[in-house]
Amino acid sequence: MRPEHPVYCLHPRAVTVATNWFLGNFPGTVLFAVKTNPYFVDTLSAAGLQHFDVASLGEIELIHAKAPGARMSFMHPVKSRLSIRRAYFEFGIRDFALDCEAELDKIIQETGNAPDLNLFVRLSVSNRHSCLDLSGKFGIAGKPAAKLLLKTRQVATRLGICFHAGSQLMRPEAYAEAMEVVSKLIRSSGVIIDILDVGGGFPSIYPDMTPPPLADFVNTIVTRFEEMPVSETCELWCEPGRALVAEAASLVVKVEMRKNNTLYINDGTYGGLFDAGHPGFIFPVTPIRQQTATNSSLAKFSLYGPTCDSLDFMPGPFVLPSDICEGDYLEIGNLGAYSMQLRTEFNGFDRTELVSVEEGPLLSMYGIARQNGTDGFHVVEETALHENTTLEGETT
Ligand SMILES: Cc1ncc(COP(=O)(O)O)c(C=O)c1O
């Protein structure tokens, strides 16, 4: 087909498999973190997931439209007054996160002292076992956390504690350590909680990051939850993002130029490859070429994206046939999370196409990885060309 623009190859079956796994194996409530990739909400919903972690009015409107009747929890700890008001009165949202007294006051005021709030205090916990540290921005700890919990308890119908131990956790201990922090806080404050939300962080798999099986993460959470000072009716929630959708898309890009071991491709950090830039993620990559390779040896490459900015650089290394050249295509895999949503229009390189394909992902935590390399996709559905960053079903 030789597409001129980057093409997202979607593997919706991977979302279904991941959703079934979480719903079948996590002994509590599973929320999907919508920010990761709202495109797959229909598939998640069809697989039975009916509870969404939303962070903005845009996401709330999207879930309202795509999954009517599903429960939404507004887990962003700093919200605009308008979004709190509309969430409560217009969309029926009762679950709100907060990490300071000012946000608690805001929620109380904007909901008119509502008597039916489920309030989650977001704790700050170590992110040392994660590949993407999220600890700097949100969360409260120590004595101020104990004080906030007591104050929140007085106005909440149900009191929750939530945390995020960082994205792409490589060790189940991350949850054990965070849950220990929660236990200590519950003991020191004497507060009774109704819900523990262990957040996201469940990993996907990348060439240089092979985490333990997801079951190890869930087992650790379950074991530690049983030891916590909470009542038998305390609910356990989790909010996976990456682990539910990462395997569900790959991006086919074209090589426009080769300079030594650097390839200039037609998508980059301002497009769908943000995480390959500064965070330095190494995604699985495989060539798609018309001619049979003349030289089967492999070499390490770095990638430049199409914009003028030299920050549009993806160090990798990405291992490819050493004779890769202009005109070849690359399939960059496991890009279902934090890619489609992060695209910008910078420099006019915003066009992508979406197709659904039958092939599985390049790497899988769920045992569904494609067995052989690919020399072509079996396209089952083509979606219209997207000329800007607005995805189908998304509100702007
Ligand atoms: C509140 C919250 N929950 C869940 C997630 C999803 O995290 P992950 O993709 O690591 O599972 C995020 C991601 O930033 C988040 O901020």
> What is the mean predicted local confidence, pLDDT?
93
Give the proportion of residues in helices.
Answer: 25-40%
Radius of gyration: 22 Å
The figure for the number of domains is 2
Strand percent estimate? 15-25%
Just name the CATH architecture of the largest domain: Alpha-Beta Barrel
> Which kinds of small molecule does this entry bind, naming each only once?
pyridoxal-5'-phosphate
Largest sheet: 9 strands, mixed
User: Could you name the CATH homologous superfamily of the largest domain?
Assistant: Alanine racemase
Name of the top-level CATH class of the largest domain: Alpha Beta
Number of helices: 9
Question: Alpha-carbon distance between the termini?
Answer: 31 Å
* Structural class by secondary-structure content: alpha/beta
Q: How would you sum up the global shape? A: elongated
- Return the string of H and E elements: EHEEHEHEHEHEEHEEHEHEHEEEEEEEE
Low-confidence stretches: 385-396
Total strand count, please?
Answer: 20
What's the short story on this structure?
Helices cover 25% and strands 24% of the residues. By secondary structure, it is of the alpha/beta class.
Description:
This protein is an alpha/beta fold. The protein has 2 domains: 12-244, Alpha-Beta Barrel (TIM Barrel), CATH 3.20.20.10; 246-386, Lyase, Ornithine Decarboxylase, Chain A, domain 1 (Beta Barrel), CATH 2.40.37.10. It has 9 helices and 20 strands. The strands form 3 sheets. Strands 1, 13, 14, 15, 16, 17, 18, 19 and 20 form a 9-stranded mixed β-sheet that branches. It has a 9-stranded parallel β-sheet with strand order 2-12-11-9-7-6-5-4-3, with helices on one face. A two-stranded antiparallel ribbon has the order 8-10. Strand 11 (195-197), helix 8 (214-227) and strand 12 form a beta-alpha-beta unit. Residues 385-396 have low confidence and may be disordered. Bound molecules: pyridoxal-5'-phosphate (PLP). Pyridoxal-5'-phosphate binds at residues 33, 36, 53, 75, 134, 164, 167, 199-202, 239-243. Residues 33, 36, 53, 75, 134, 164, 167, 199-202, 239-243 line the site of pyridoxal-5'-phosphate.
